[in-house]
Amino acid sequence: MSNYRVARMTLSGRVALIIFAAALLGICAMPWWASQGLIRDVVTLACYIAVAQMWNMLAGYGGVVSVGQQSFVGVAAYAMFVLAQTFGVNPFLAVFLSLIAPAILAVPIYGLLHRLEGAYFAIGTWVVAEALRLIATNMPMLNGGAGMSLRVMTQFSAHERAVASSLLAAALLLVTLGGSYLLLRSRYGIALTAMRDNPIAAASQGVDVGRLKLLIFIATAVGTGFAGAVYFMAQLRITPPSAFDANWANLAIFIVMVGGIGSLEGVIIGAVIYFFADRWFGEYGASYLIVLGLLTLTCALYFRGGIWGMWSKWVEAPWFPTRRRLIRLEGEKA
Amino acid sequence: MHWIDGIVQGVLLGGLYAQYALGMALMFGVMKIVNVTHGDLVVLLALIGISLANVAGLGPWAVLATLVPIGAALGWLLQRALLNRVVGDDPLPSLIATFGLSIALQNAMLVIWSADTRSLSGGGIQQASIALGPIFVGVLPLIVLICATVLTGGLDAVMRYTRFGRSLRAASADVEAAAMVGVNPRNVYAAATAIAVGILGFAATFQAMRSTVAPADGPFQLIYAFEAVIIGGLGSIWGAFAGAMILGISQAIGFRISPGFGILAGHLVFLAVLAIRPQGIFQRKA
User: 3-class DSSP state for residue B195?
Assistant: First the structure.
């Protein structure tokens, strides 16, 4: 005799879903309406959103803090370059094949580092990223410190490349944002949220905390690697310092902390802010980065929920509702 | 002889790393937090020291005597203004807060001192060396190693035998119980960070004398300190010292195998220790 039903979808969620789908279709159709410059900007923004959302899943839901996600950016991007440039695999196929590399690498990294406590785990991921950068610098197969160019791309016309970039950007957003949304709505989402709030209590409720953390680490490694492969395919050039650039961790952390940790909406807001800040103030170099650093610090100290956290205190209209609400059915006595 | 020389130079390099690592071991032992600005503070202090030497004409030992109290004051301020707000079970806030501060600090130093590499003149001591049998040992690295040993022994003795050391260990073991018996955690934490950053005053002076510093160097110093602490075993003072020696030797031998392999050899030894003995080499229990 259930007098209640569980609701997750809200009106704002439905509207947002339609906008999200329309935006993805618009991105797919970019070669027919957008300029080359705009396509490149959208690809870059999609990579920022993807890397930040993967960090958000890891830190905001998985409770695993990493400052070395550039490991996966670099490894997937290099795998794509080697497959396409050295072995002649079709570059667009190579993007997807290259995702095997971060998946395989994530297992030993997690296996080694999970022995370290919270904050030390994070610094450990940084050491791994540094080690990978140095290994890439010393590897003749990757042309060492001089880096590689994706010369095979010249076999495609500009229009073909634009179509591929647009489709890849749309796929990247669909997998990282859409995938996270579906995951958070599923029973794994409940397990993740429980684990974030209290790992011991979650374990006592039957959540296999260790296994779930490993799985989320691998999944976010693949998502981060996907962004890396797409980003460096658009760049056409890769060097060890750019592939394993600590700035990937910086931007992910800035976007998530300022936008709002533990929410998909916050990542989109933060990524858009970062994208335009970088565009407008990037020329100020050091002074701009001082402000960025201090903003991250301020959010960690005083505004733990970021912009989305403050906004949702006033307006209850989630774009990606994951919360379950109990609704009493009409016409029956409670 | 080539390899013995490598080991000796590695131990001497380890003396410098020990000075980075001591403060980190102390802070993690007492508060369970990692201060991401650890390496940036070394660079900041070194740059302040170099400017003092240039502007006020201070000699290297006067610079050292000035940087240690400046470091202690910076550490106290850092803990009071920032870290005391984020100490707790959740590692995220302290990590992210100091991560943001680290980016701001690096770029602020870039604005003030530009990206140039600088060093501190030691008045001829950098070139001096003595012969130990067939191996030549630099006088400055030897002073650094002796200084690191004395600092480690001194810090260990303070932790073991003084009233202050007892309050540090009490706050480390159970902060609420310590508060009940009259230890003010905020004061203890501020003192611990003041000591940690004060020791970095030594590291900064010697780093600037031995080689060069530039505003972007901080993350490397942070990573070396971290590797030394983990190799030695968490929260143990002499462990951090020994970890620094192992890291120094790994890098020195790596550099002799191939110049591109030195730093990487240190990282690989760190990862190997994690794989084989995750509790650290000098820690008995897991």
Answer: helix
